[in-house]
Write a structure and sequence with these properties.
TATA-Binding Protein; three-stranded antiparallel beta sheet; single chain
């Protein structure tokens, strides 16, 4: 119960992006770079998770941050690079 008092719940957003190569996505230099950049900007104030779907040709981009505006900013920043590099319409 002491630990529960220290957990901060942040706003969260998940975006699914249809991609041409979900397994190779994390090896694309531009995608790796934008994720690293976002994590550095957050400086421990939030979380980024980018992973392939287990069942569909999708890359899942999730962010948690102190404000809805930051969550939207980081998800869209990463999603834009994913769409540009390997996205399918």
């Amino acid at each position: 119960s002491e630990l529960a008092g220290e957990v901060t719940i942040y706003p969260q957003k998940l975006v699914n992006i249809r991609v041409s190569d979900k397994e190779g996505a994390m090896e694309v230099p531009a995608i790796k770079a934008v994720i690293e950049e976002a994590e550095a900007e957050m400086a421990g104030n939030g979380r980024i998770l980018v992973r392939p779907s287990g069942t569909e040709p999708l890359l899942r981009v999730m962010a948690e941050a102190p404000t809805d505006e930051l969550v939207e900013y980081y998800v869209e920043k990463i999603a834009a690079v994913v769409r540009q590099e390997i996205g399918l319409n």
